[in-house]
Amino acid sequence: MKDRLYFKQIELGPMQNYVYLIGSAETRKAAVVDAAWEIDTILRLAAKDDVEITHAFVTHTHPDHVGGRFAGTEIEGVTELLGKCKAKVVVHRTEAEFLKGPSASDIIKAESGDKIDVGGVEIQLMHTPGHTPGSQCFLVDNRIVSGDTLFIGSCGRIDLPGSNPEQMYYSLTQKLMALPDETILFPGHNYSDRPTSTIGAEKQTNPYFRFHSLKQFLAAMGYR
Q1: In this predicted model, what pLDDT tens digit does every residue of 166-194 receive, in sequence order?
Q2: How far is the C-alpha of 136 from the C-alpha of 105, rounded, in Å?
Q3: Residue 124: which of 111, 134, 108, 109 has the closest Cα?
Q4: DSSP state string for 7-49
Q5: CB 3.0–4.6 Å: which of 3, 33, 69, 217 could bond 211 by disulfide?
């Protein structure tokens, strides 16, 4: 798939968000992941590469990933994107209700394991709750786009409304750690000195991959 995969990582916005364009280098169709910031910049970059955005994938529905009210300001987001291009929004079913802008006909309510065809490239969805109830990651060509579930050297916060530390533990240990070591990690924010890692490297260095029981994990997170 490598020869026909179109994959671009873009840092946008004041919170060091990574936005991704993923699709086919042959059909020139792509999905944008977490289009919250600088929608015109995203569309301009896609147009420069002669790529049509057909899907908007959502890792989770926090404002810095989909748009909305945040810190007293209005973030552009998915609704702005849909006003400028025709795209289907792919969001986990447990968080679809939190997307207020798109119409029901624009939304694909996803389940874990679903595979979405984007211009001939298959992207697999993995439900990884913990940071939010509907957090999901996207697998394509030995790469995983992890949103705010897994960062390089850390994991997403679990002290926010809707967060669940037990679910986060199982998402990390039963799902992400089960991926092949060579799987390349593409996180939702630039919180490291490098833009990517691998699951194998995270097993060796990420402290949140080193707990051998849920009890240890919860204790380390301040839950007794």
Answers
A1: 999 999 999 999 999 999 999 999 999 99
A2: 21
A3: 111
A4: EEEEEETTTTEEEEEEEETTT-EEEEES--S-HHHHHHHHHHT
A5: 217
- Per the structure block, which two tokens stand in for 157? 């916060």
Count structural domains, the chain. Answer: 1
Q: Is the pLDDT of residue 221 over 90?
A: no
Extract the tokens encoding 55.
């899907």
Distance CA 17, CA 36 (A): 9
User: What are the pLDDT digits (tens) for 20-53?
Assistant: 999 999 999 999 999 999 999 999 999 999 999 9
Give the C-alpha separation, 58 to 138, whole Å: 9
Question: Helix (H) and strand (E) counts for the chain?
Answer: 6, 16
* CATH number of the domain bearing residue 109: 3.60.15.10
Residue 113: which domain range?
Answer: 2-220
Q: What is the pTM of this model?
A: 0.95
